[in-house]
Amino acid sequence: MSNPSAQTHIEELREIIRRHDELYYREGASEISDREYDALKEELAQMESEAGLDAEDSPTKTVGDDRTEGFRKVKHRRPMLSLDNTYNEEELRAFHVRLAKMFDEGAELEFVVEPKIDGVAVSLTYEKGQLVQAVTRGNGAEGDDITRNLLEAVPDLPRELKDAPELIEIRGEIYMMAEEFLRINQEREESGLPMFANPRNLTAGTIKQLGGVSGRRLSIVLYGVGYCEPNHFAMQSDLHEAIRGWRLPTVEKYWRVNRIDDVWAAVEELDKLRHEFAYATDGAVVKLNSFAMQSEAGMTSKAPRWAIAYKFEAEQAETLLEKIDVQIGRTGAVTPVAHLAPVQLAGTTVSRATLHNEDEIKRKDIRPGDTVVVQKAGEIIPQVLSVVMDKRPADSMPFEFARFLEERGIKAERVPGQAAWRLTGQDDPIQQRRRLTHYASKQCLDIENLGEAVVDQLVTAELVADPADLYALRKDQLLELERFGEKSAENLINAIEQSKQAELWRLLHALGISHVGKQSAKDITQHFGTLDAIMEADPETLEAVDGVGGIMAKAIVDFFADEKNRALILRLREAGLNFALADSEKPAEAVEGGVLNGKTVVLTGTLPTLTRDQATALIEKAGGKTSSSVSKKTDYVLAGDAAGSKLAKAEKLGVAVLDEAAFRELVGE
Ligand code: IVH
Questions:
Q1: Could you read off the pLDDT of 494-510 as tens digits, one per residue?
Q2: Which stretches does DSSP call E strand in 245-301?
Q3: Fewer CB within a 10 Å sphere, N or C end of the chain?
């Protein structure tokens, strides 16, 4: 057997890999790229085999574990396995040779080549054609029941399959569309919250939220069968066709090929096409097409022998890290950002990249002046992957985050238990500037000519420290500032004056309450009508608003409970700001007092006489509004023929269901 130091090294590597597994599978927050992770595993596997030391619980023998507390555990009827990865053509050809040896000479091997989706694995069970549950991979043998979250996040997932087998477990990946990812991150940025690194991590986090999915939209793509009774398919390609036939979301393209040269050609073609797909595709999966031959080839404890993943090169580029700077969020979050010499990457010019936090900089030992490798995470946000050590300047010094902040006079502290830093105190001039710029921005009170530079001047001259101070500004004070003339001073005073009339949602958004983005501000003000009503609202009342969850409700209540904030609101009121909805903004119901005042109705199925538009018009006339998905906030479901899953959900949640006749009666038609 081995020497003790090899054993220690193996143990250490196992620990490191387990930690990354934990981050990837349970916390949805990986710190290293797939390739770095695979390299660690490869190193471990090699050491284990050299030392003759393998253990059943080694990460080289098990699949990662995504199970988390708070979810019901469900056993898979057949294990959900992982795939072995390859990174080059030779390894792919070696897979073919290995496989061919398992069968009689001359046996025809047919393959399916399909996209490898970079998402979160899921297994859907349909019984008698009805969707009954969705389960994560878990440890491969048992996973978490995520049915509720999935139905909420993927409202258009078919709940019913026509002509389906008695019982089928269909497998696939949950993912988030780029657009949705960017929307959420933009809202996070506006709310001063740290941004998510990539759509995969956010998908994993969303699907495992205990209090619902916070209005986040996910998508799904299905490509596999875990169990099927009675046995329905002979081949993987039959399965793809059946999935398509059931109108379930499926892979955009797959190839059926025999020769290994054609397998390779398909892989190369996929690499070109994948950027057009709705989901991030980080590789190709090559599978034996025949299910009978798959059984014959068998599997290891971790992965099938009949399939392999070929991982595409992530698009990377080398460039100079000119400097590290920080970005300060509206609520004071301090995030390090890399300023790069512009470089072309996956079709765009990249000149900035996120460095996430202090620990990330330390772990990768990133320093200004370094040549770094940048990569797009999930093909969206550029990140600094590693430093090219050979190109490090001789006089380079480690980057010290705390010192960097101190030198720039940025008063901040590390949030206990986290890697994030936050500004201390609202009196900090940087924080004041950040809040004022947000207050005046287009998405808030839209005060023309009050951008960063002017805010900077006003704060430096100690004329303004918070938004209420703006309304006391005088023209003569502005005239004393550089670059201000008669006209520009007058324009600014007028613009500030005008902001007093702005719509209420603008003011609510401008206050900078954590988690409250533009859309939430609109929804909340529509619901409550006045700022006073919002200030008085308790968490339950706030949560009654569509799109407001527990975290946001708490942030709002906390904000208005703070004496400093109440004092600011009082001064804004005294300055004459608009604290209520204008009549024209009020929802129809408040004006007309209809029977559906403040009620939400979901339409589903085909009504006997009314079209969707006509039904919607009647709902609105009665003061109600329509929504596309059923939740506990839905008041009525108006159901017609072939109503399907929304009706089922309404029944499950105990939401009142109306047919057209009952609806007509209710609205007095
Ligand atoms: S087949 C038993 N096909 O990648 C075969 N997996 O890295 C295992 N994945 O666990 C699944 N796209 O979650 C298969 N077209 C595809 C896939 C795919 C993504 C995931 C799956 C698997 C993981 C392995």
A1: 999 999 999 999 999 99
A2: 255-257, 281-288
A3: N
Backbone angles phi, psi at 205, to 5 degrees: -65, -40
Judge whether residue 127 has pLDDT over 70.
yes
Q: Does the residue 591 lie in any domain? A: no
Alpha carbon nearest to ligand 1 atom 13, residue: 121
Distance 112 CA to ligand 1 centre (A): 13
The closest of 500, 502, 496, 501 to 522, measured between CA atoms, is 502
* Residue 35: CATH number of its domain: 1.10.287
What's the confidence (pLDDT) of residue 591?
43
Residues 251, 374: one domain?
A: no
Ligand 1, pocket-test mutation among 77, 78, 83, most atoms within 8 A of CB: 83
Bridge partner residues of 657 (DSSP): 637
CA-nearest residue, atom 16 of ligand 1: 116
Distance CA 353, CA 360 (A): 13
Torsion-angle region of 139 (φ positive above 0: left; ψ -120 to 50: alpha; else: beta):
alpha
Q: What residues does ligand 1 touch, defined as CB less than 6 Å away?
A: 81-83, 114-117, 121, 173, 223-224, 285, 304, 307, 309
Q: Which residues are catalytic?
A: 116
Q: What is the token pair recorded at 459?
A: 């704060």
Distances (CA, A) of 230 to 169, 233, 325, 600: 12, 9, 61, 42
Distance 82 CA to ligand 1 centre (A): 6
- Over residues 173-183, the pLDDT tens digits come to 999 998 899 88
**pLDDT given at position 590:** 44
State which of 285, 289, 291, 311 you would mutate to test the pocket of ligand 1, scoring each by most atoms of that ligand within 8 A of its C-beta.
Answer: 285
Q: Which of 116, 136, 207, 302 should be mutated for ligand 1, with most atoms under 8 A from CB?
A: 116
| Cα 83 to ligand 1 centroid, rounded to whole Å | 6
Domain that holds residue 400: 316-423
Distances (CA, A) of 425 to 69, 191, 410: 36, 17, 11
Domain count, the chain: 5
- Separation of CA 381 from chain center: 12
